[in-house]
Amino acid sequence: VVQSLRTHSGTGVPFSVEFNPPRDAAGEARLWRAVREFERMHPAFVSMTYGAGGSTRDRTVRITGALAQETTLLPVAHLTAVGHSIAELRSLVGSYADSGICNVLVLRGDPPGDPLGEWRKHPEGVEYAEELVRIVRDLGDFHVGVASFPQGHHRSPDLDHDTRHLCAKLRAGAEYSITQMFFDVEHYLRLRDRVIAMDPAEGAKPIVPELMPITSLRTVARAEELSGRPVPADIVARLTRAAGTGPEEDRAAVRAEGIQIATEMAQRLIDEDAPCLHFITLNFAKATSEVLTNLGYGVTAAPLSA
Ligand code: FAD
């Protein structure tokens, strides 16, 4: 991933996208349409999430393997520790390697059913992502990324604790982090400052900001569910104003405002030298490609070799 970011940065700030394992055949067809759309835009990498507790394990492995073998994209497989023994985690990483995947985003995961519920490690598993970073690195030639949290992880008592453990994951061998989505760029910039201040060597590793274009008032709730944080009041106010005062939400206006908000955030991140823009797509290409078009990214540029 880090190599691909370097290669792609020759033509400006690279972008990347996140997909989810589809639930059924229709979802899989939709995912592949999005994959082919993005392929024309040459993302630096694409990541595939891992369902809570391994619920999507076989599909995640199969589809991420297909991305490695049947596309020009660089896939990153998410891997979560929740519900797995170390032996199972090793075997999963082996399945990824067999499919030609060498980039893994290592995560602890949340308790299935209730992300805020009590965390219990698998009796033969790992307690923290840091341990899993070491396990994956020891298994072979894998490039590992980890999660970072602009406003702190919800289980961290304070930002200092949060930064300390992020630095520990990076020192354990992670080469970069991808943030939780956020809607206030200041939170991202302060995270970057904290890591650099605590550990300048680890602070030099890319912190990739994650963005999600909001396309409806319903997506506000989805964004809050995914990030575990409220969407800031000024953003909600802009979207609500766009929705209008009529009995029905003005969906086109809300969508346009959501795309505009994501474009403004992305532009600020570019101005602040972010190493990449990582978009949550929910397996749709349209909203993200509109933001990228607003920013002047082309779809016809020659592919870059990663
Ligand atoms: P950890 O790094 O283990 O941290 C968990 C908590 O423990 C933090 O509060 C941390 O500060 C603290 N901590 C860490 N080490 C120590 C220590 N040694 N002593 C004391 N405290 C410590 N979830 C999924 O289920 N599937 C996905 O595909 C997925 N993808 C994600 C992608 C991104 C970019 C992000 C940001 C999150 C993703 N998540 C995913 C959610 C993630 O699994 C949860 O946020 C989870 O609660 C935290 O995972 P972590 O890897 O950061 O955990």
Notes on the protein architecture:
The protein is of the alpha/beta class. It contains twelve helices and nine strands. It has a nine-stranded parallel sheet with strand order 7-6-5-4-3-2-1-9-8. It is globular and about 55 Å long. Mean pLDDT is 93; it is low at 300-306. The structure holds flavin-adenine dinucleotide. Flavin-adenine dinucleotide is lined by residues 49-50, 52, 78, 80, 107-110, 128-130, 147, 153, 155-156, 161-162, 165, 169, 178, 180, 210. It catalyses: (6S)-5-methyl-5,6,7,8-tetrahydrofolate + NAD(+) = (6R)-5,10-methylene-5,6,7,8-tetrahydrofolate + NADH + H(+). Its cofactor is FAD. Pathway: One-carbon metabolism; tetrahydrofolate interconversion. One of its GO terms (molecular function) is FAD binding.
What ranges have pLDDT less than 50 throughout 5 or more consecutive residues? 300-306
Distance between the termini: 9 Å
Please provide the ordered H/E string of secondary-structure elements. Answer: HEHEHEHEHEHEHHEEHHHEH
Bound molecules: flavin-adenine dinucleotide
Quaternary structure: single chain
Share in helix: 40-55%
Catalytic activity: (6S)-5-methyl-5,6,7,8-tetrahydrofolate + NAD(+) = (6R)-5,10-methylene-5,6,7,8-tetrahydrofolate + NADH + H(+)
Protein name: Methylenetetrahydrofolate reductase
Organism: Nocardia coubleae
Family: Belongs to the methylenetetrahydrofolate reductase family.
